[in-house]
Amino acid sequence: MKLFDSHCHLDDSVYDPDFELVLQRAGNAGVSAMMVVGVNLKTSQKAAVLSGAYKEIFAAVGFHPHDASQASESGMEVLEKLASNPKVLAWGEIGLDFNRMHSPRDVQEKWLIRQLALADSLYLPVIFHERESGGRLLEILKQYHRNPGNGVIHCFSGTRSELTQYLDMGFSIGITGILTIQSRGADLRELVTEIPQDRILIETDAPYLTPAPEKNHTRRNEPAFVRSVLLKLAEVRGEDPDELADALWNNTCRLFRVPLDRE
Question: DSSP string spanning 169-211?
Fold first, then answer.
């Protein structure tokens, strides 16, 4: 079984004391590749550095909606230079978050649109964050995304209507450990059966969203735990875990343009 954690934040300082052990545990769990996702300049730069130091790590760069107030044109220039790195394979995570509102709505929208234009010009797949935007992310994607479908809806937690629209636009859907949580994951377990197999990615969002059963022992998520997401996904969909793992590996490599036969 070969797994790709399509979204994690190994740049986080919580991994500093045992980073090498985290990678070792990931390898032991069958996780052969990880996408480390930036949320601002500092984390994007660190993600790019990590991707250069470890063969199993790839990177994405961008300003998260929480950090949109930090964005600037000079920051966009730095990110664009980072994106020239051959192991920076995506732009993100970007999007809209109208739940916590760490950045004003108009600022989030401005820099989402600006980053979409940059990602499109570089033909990079985009990693999207969406929380309680009331359909506004969909509106912006339909109006401004010149390469529709070239991206993934990270940590999908929306409605059936939103899922249908994302799928109709060609996007992949990222599934996290929420799927494994008894009450919180109930709606997701129902909807995940409606996603075509070739449009699903699995992710940890580590160090956040620790899946069951690991959450009973530790608060800190890590890439090794993406295996629990895979096993629950296979159970809910009634599919063979090994066959599903192969399909998800192929999906992720195809989206991020990683050679399928990569070892």
Answer: TT-EEEE-GGGGSTTTTHHHHHHGGGS-GGGEEE---TTSSPP
Residue that the structure tokens 């499109």 belong to: 120
Token digits of residue 132: 């309680």
Q: Torsion over CA of 227, 200, 102 and 10, rounded to 10 degrees? A: 40
Contact residues for 55 (Cβ-Cβ < 8 A; gap 6+): none
- Greatest alpha-carbon span in the chain: 49
Looking at beta carbons, which pairs linking 178-182 to residues 24 or more positions away fall under 8 Å?
178/209, 179/211, 179/229, 179/232, 179/233, 179/236, 180/211, 180/212, 180/213, 180/228, 180/229, 180/232, 181/211, 181/212, 181/215, 182/212
Global pTM reads 0.97
> In this predicted model, what pLDDT tens digit does every residue of 71-94 receive, in sequence order?
999 999 999 999 999 999 999 999
Q: Domains along the chain?
A: 3-256 (3.20.20.140)
Cα 242 from Cα 222, distance rounded (Å): 21
